[in-house]
Amino acid sequence: MRMTKKCLLFGILGFLIILLAACVDVSNEESTDETDSDPVAEETTTDEAEVEEGEKVVKIGYSGPLSGPGAQYGANVLNGVKMAANEINENGFEIDGTTYKIELVALDDKYLPNETGVNVKRMVSEDDPVAIYIPHSGGVFATQEFNEEDDFIIMAYTSEPRMYEQGNELLVGVPPKYSVWREPFTDYMMENFGPKMAMLPTASQYGKDWTESITPVWEENGGEIVFENDIDFSKETDYFTVVTNALNENPDVLFVGGPSEPTALVIKQAKELGFEGGFMIMDQAKIEEMAGFLGGYEMLNGSIGLLPIESYEMEATQEFVKTYKEKFDADYATSESALNYQSMFALVEAMKAAGSVDDTQAIMDAFNKGIENIPEENMVTTLTGINEDGSLQWESEAAAVENGEVIAIPVD
User: Fold this and answer.
1) Are 239 and 213 in contact (CB under 8 A)?
2) CA 128 to the chain's CA centroid
C-alpha cells in the first residue's frame, strides 16, 4: 500500500532536502547556474486525462527545466513523455478489468536540485505519482535521498553512471551511461586525427565527471592531454580566449560538450581560428541540433558524437520522427524525446505485467517483461532490457561527420 504523507513529515523532509541540495552540485548533462526564470515556472502544468465512467487515472510526474537556457532540452524530454501518454490514452490500458489513463504533472525546476526536491515533495503530497521523470543528475541525486521511502520510481534521464552507486531499487536510468562512448570515441579520434587532446567541457559536475572518465581511456591508448579548462555556458557567451589558449597547445582533438547551441558556437569559433582537427562531443550536445545552429553539417566535419535518432532506419523510428515534428512543430526529434517516449511505454507495460499501478517494487520487478511487451510500432529504437542497476539497455550507435555527411559508428 502507498504511504499516507503526513504534513509534519512533509515539512521536515522538505527542509532536509533543501539543506541537502545546497551541498550537491547540479551534476547533470545540461546544468547551468542560471537562476532567472519565467514566473510561470512555479506553476503546475497538468495534462489531464479524459476518463469515462469506470476508468481511473495514474499520475506521472516531471521535474525539469521548462524555462531559461535549458528550456528546449526540458521540452524535448517532456514532449516525448507527453506524446507517449497521449497515444496510450487513446484507448487506455487495462489491469484486472479496470481501464487506466495517464495524467502528467510537470513542474519547472530550472536545473536546480533544491528546486527538484521541493517540486517532487509537492507532487508526492498533492498527486501521489507512481513515477517521476527527472532529466538531470543533480535532481536525481537529491531525490534519491527519499524516493524509496516515499515510494515512487525515478525515471532518470541522465547518462551519469554515479547515480547507480547507491543501489536505489526504485530507479530507472533511461539513456545509456556515458561510459559506453569512451572507447569508440577515442578509437575514432586517435585513428583519424592524433594523440593530443585539449579539454573544453561544460563547467557542470557532469562535465567534470565526463572529463575524469575519458582522460584515463585516452591516455591508456597513447594519448596526451595538452590543455584543460571548462566553460560555464550560463555565464560565458564569447569563447575566443579559452579556445585560442587551447589551440596554442597545438591539439589534434578538442573535447567539447554542453548544451547543443553553445557547443556549436565553440566548434564554430575553433574553425574560424583555423583548427582543422577533430571534435569529441559529449553526449549532451546533439549533432543534428548543432547542424541546425551552424547551417548544416559542413562545419561539423571531423566530429564524433551520438547518432541522430532520425538516422535509424527502423520503420517505427521514421514514423516517430515524422509524427513528432508535426505534433510539436519541431525541426528535430532528438534522442531525448525518442528515448523518453519509449520509456513511457516500457513503464506502462511493466505496470500491466505487474498487475498493479501502485506497487512500485512489483513494477520494477516486471520491467524486463514490460520491455518485451512494448508494441512494435512504439519500439523507436532497440531496447533489449533493464540491468540489475536499473539502467535501460539500448542498442546504440555513435556518429561521425565526414564530408558534410553523418556516418554511423558501431558501439560494442
Assistant:
1) no
2) 23
| 284 and 214 belong to one structural domain | yes
Judgement on whether residues 148 and 192 belong to the same structural domain of the protein: no
Task: Name the one residue in this structure whose C-alpha cell is 481511473.
Answer: 56
Closest CA to 206 of 259, 166, 253: 259
Which residues 6+ apart lie within 8 Å of 72 measured at CB?
A: none
Number of other CB atoms surrounding residue 225 within 10 Å: 18
Question: What are the two backbone dihedrals, phi and then psi, of residue 295, each rounded to the nearest 5 degrees?
Answer: 80, 25
Task: Return the C-alpha cell found at 14.
Answer: 522538505
The number of CA neighbours under 13 Å toward the Cβ of 313 is 2
Q: Per residue in 253-262, pLDDT tens? A: 999 998 888 8
Helices within 170-259 (DSSP H only)? 182-192, 205-220, 240-247
Which domain, by its residues, includes 59? 7-177+317-394
Is residue 2 situated within a structural domain?
Answer: no
| pTM (predicted TM-score) | 0.84
pLDDT at 241 over 70: yes
